Amino acid sequence: MTETTGASPLAPEWLAVPSDLNALHAPMWAAGVERNDGGELAIDGIPVSELKAQFGSPLFVMSETDFRARARAFKDAFDAAFEDICGGVDVYYAGKSFLCTAVASWVAEEGLRLDTCSGGELAVAARAGIDGANLGLHGNNKSDAEINRALDMKLGRIVVDSLDELERVAKIASGRGEVAKVMLRLTPGVHAHTHEFIATAHEDQKFGLSMAGDSTEEAGLSAAEEAVAAATAYDSVELLGLHCHIGSQIFEPEGFALAAEKLLTFLAAMQSKYSITLPELDLGGGYGIAYTPVDTPRPAAEIAQAMAAVVRSTCAQLGITSPRISIEPGRAIVGSSTFTLYEVGTLKTVRVDAPEAAGAAENVTFPRRYVSVDGGMSDNARPVLYDADYSAVLASRTTLAEPQLSRVVGKHCESGDIVVRDVYLPADVAAGDLLAVPGTGAYCWALSSNYNYLARPGVVAVRGGTARWIVRGETEEDLLNRDMGVANV
Length: 489
Ligand code: LLP
Fold this sequence. Notes:
globular, 28% helix, binds ligand LLP, alpha/beta, nine-stranded mixed sheet, 2 domains, Lyase, Ornithine Decarboxylase, Chain A, domain 1
């Protein structure tokens, strides 16, 4: 049957039929992941069947070596590019992408700082023994308790998101007889995603202080400027500088560069108008990774150099000394360090009309195979939430079988429960096989849930040929722990 060997009309245009189904597309995988002599996927020499036997599935399998290398690579690339501009860059790992105490400690050991966005993330940082000076706190709706906690921990920066919050932080710090170190999160009107960015004057989103001139009651002053003026006036606030974050999964440097230019121009204007110095500028995160073979992220050095060139020339043009630059990458450090290991269960094939655009004859149907695995949207919500594409390989063995267009789905009671929407997998994939989905280090475990009372998978870290839990998997007992039981009804 030719329809299983060639490109399926049901496949999206970007998805090519792989010439070798056993091959691994290197940019999607952590260093140290390869097929062993027996054809099985292995990480640091540990075959996936061993991981499955020891830790179960689904399982997040993370290379500590890869995580550390990417963290260090970001720091080195940005330090090198900005050395002559501001003496280097402070890299804050965005903990929201994936955080546990082990990861927090690796981040510190590699010379990075940590960006948090809740009291819970601060608790992890505290447990890992991270110095408060190396922590930032984000969030558009920080509670008083979170602000107090930040002050208790003597945080290096609280990134204030609104005029309301600025007042609250100032009041709380003043009540404690302390001075809060504050950055202001601005919305520069630049939104970027993958290869494109858009620039608009106005912002219609919950985050940040608008830079558009007419957005507040104070005639002519933007919310951003009002915040600068107010922060400067408070005795209990030390205004360190400005912050922006323009989006996620960004491949091209232009959006970052435009945002840098806009913020520097504003920073220079504020410095001169209010006779202040704003020593810091944070350009946020958002650096993209390869989820599928068509994703082509740029190396950190290339992005760093492009951003440095704009910061250098803009500062020269404005006649200002560059503030100390910081960035907040999450996904680009942790995303590719991890794959998810699943076991295949039920398989079924349906026949589907080809989309009109595929140009197939009417009344001709094509097969789509559904491959069910033992996890799903509870361990990777990104396909459901963002239509995110992933890839997958047969991990427990190699095969010479033909490629077959497949949809990897979870075990949840929800038809949208898709893990990999479209992927060519070997036609002989069968129950009991192990599948690996790469690129699941960021925003997968972090967004995981207990939907349908599935226990959330744990995370195993591999280093130097040994694997150990850094977050153990949940048990049924964990699931029932908070249920108060029938005695309380
Ligand atoms: N800094 C700030 C202020 C952020 O809001 C974010 C992400 C980051 C840094 C890190 O961005 P990254 O380098 O990891 O792209 N759940 C979505 C992404 C949400 C991102 C939220 N903010 C996803 O899975 O695609």
